[in-house]
Amino acid sequence: MRSRGALVGVAVVAALLGGCRADESSAHPLTWHRLDTPGAVRVTALASGSPLLVAGQVGTGDAAQPRLWQLTGNDWLPVPLHPVTYYGARAALVRVAAHGGHLVALGRAVGGAHGNPRFSTWSGPSSGVGETAQAFELFGGPRAIGLNGLAAGADQDVVVGSWAPGTAPAGVTVWTGDGATYQRRDTEAGLRSSASDQTSASAIAARGPGFVVAGTTTHLGGGRITLHATAFWTTARGAPWRRELLPSSGSEGGDSSALGVACAAVVCTVAGVDDGRLAIWRVADDGRAERVDLGRHAPRLSSSDVVVSVAADGDSAWVLAAGQLLRLRDGDVQAFGAPSGTGVALATSGSLLFAVTSNGEMQAATAP
Questions:
Q1: pLDDT of 28-68, one tens digit each?
Q2: Quick check: is 2 in a domain?
Q3: Model pLDDT for residues 77-128, shown as the tens digit of each residue
Q4: Strand 324-329 to strand 332-336: parallel, antiparallel, or no bridges (unpaired)?
């Protein structure tokens, strides 16, 4: 069993039916600086903590290679990577997570006759992270839908995505393991779909020995299709998964989806969209959820490809969406100047905020 030291924070990203840039006239100023990554690497993922985990990729095609660092202050400490498969050696590390000194990553490369994603898993200490080869049809094959998140907990690592088991509609599935070996669990009652309620996942975060997944339940009935933002959660290894429909705006016909999550201590912050606007919920350790009143800080999300990112530290949660950066602390919601460009990842490390933009650049700011 690994150390049960607290995980400072997890950053998660999810694509969303999005919209326009929010009015920043009332935002507190925040100065963002572009960071020069070693070797002009395209940054692909972040994981909050001290040190910060930064994943990237160099090269393209057959010349592509993954990279991983621990960043403390201005010091970039490379983490040696040891691939063992053709696709692992060319993967982009699209998710990274840590618990204490245990590092895990999820790699993705495209290949094969049909150009499908080939996922790779990675695990190890900062002195060296090795690829842990898995059977292709553990994550891939004709029943695969996609993978959306990775989290490292006190007793296990969990990958979340969607899978079509063949005996029921495609729904939320978790793969649990120790970073070296994983088992697919596609029949969990609290996760799986039914004929009338189909589940999907967007992101996952560790909370103590348990986990929280941000996702959506699509209800088919009454002559219409309704989307409900949902938190799926479990309290410990081997404990059952449960689901909680998150409070909606109450607008008739309004759909909602939960798309990002980060946890600090026992409270998790979930962000997504409700009735076409940014929505944020707080989920307690017993699954009870409350909606955060964003007031004027709820931008409309109405076009496409807007990213929602969430990061949490000891006393704050940060949400980046539609060009607006919000901080939730002590019951207050404040807006701050967002990084330039389209943010696709957000993380915290001590007093610093880090963001990654859609072109693979990385920016940093000192949190007030």
A1: 999 999 999 998 799 999 999 999 999 999 998 889 999 99
A2: no
A3: 999 999 999 999 999 999 999 999 999 999 999 877 656 789 999 999 999 9
A4: antiparallel
- Could you tell me the maximum CA-CA distance found in the chain, to the nearest angstrom? 58
Q: Provide the CB-side half-sphere exposure for 185 (13 A, CA).
A: 17
- Domain of 201 in residue numbering reads as 12-366
Residue predicted with more confidence, 1 or 191? 191
Residue 1 lies in a domain: no
d(C-alpha 204, C-alpha 353), whole Å: 20
pTM strictly above 0.85: yes
pLDDT at 357: 92
Contacts of 253 (CB under 8 A, 6+ apart): none
With tokens 């969430």, the residue in question is 310
11 touches 262 (CB < 8 A): yes
Give the whole-angstrom CA distance, residue 349 versus residue 332: 21
| DSSP element (H, E) containing 139 | helix 136-139
Is 213 part of a structural domain of the chain?
yes
8 Å CB contact between 183 and 176 = yes
Q: How far apart are the C-alpha atoms of 282 and 334, rounded to whole Å? A: 16
Total domains in the fold of the chain:
1
Nearest by Cα to 278 from 291, 262, 264: 291
